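Title: Prediction job returns without error message
Component: structure pipeline
Severity: low
Priority: P3
Assignee: unassigned

Description:
Job completed but the reporter wants confirmation the result is attached to the right record. Sequence as submitted:
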Amino acid sequence: MPHLITSFSAVLSAVGGLQRVFEIGNAAGVVVTLSVVILVLLFMVQRFGTSKVGFMFAPAVLLWFSFIGTIGLYNIFNHDSNIFKAFNPKYIYLYFERNKKDGWISLGGIVLAVTGIPWLI
């Protein structure tokens, strides 16, 4: 059952973002209806196997990641390339040395935020 809640919240969130782009009048009703339609279609197609669903979404995902990567590289090279300092392990060592236990607690919060947020909804 949690996988259904996670799927619904992810689709609802994505479709909810569209309401700001297209300035939909009755946003709540349209967002929920469109989310339900998308999920019903996804679960109907899922019986053919996840490989078919993945194959169907692969071009969109490739396009999405290409745009994200291109925009990211553009912003890095045009605004501030100091972000590459994050790959230097010296900075995480200095962070933990400076913050002691609070540094590890903040790292736990970051890991939870990256991996566990859908389960908290």
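Comment from assignee: result matches the submitted record. Helices lie at 2-22, 27-45, 50-78, 89-115, 117-120.
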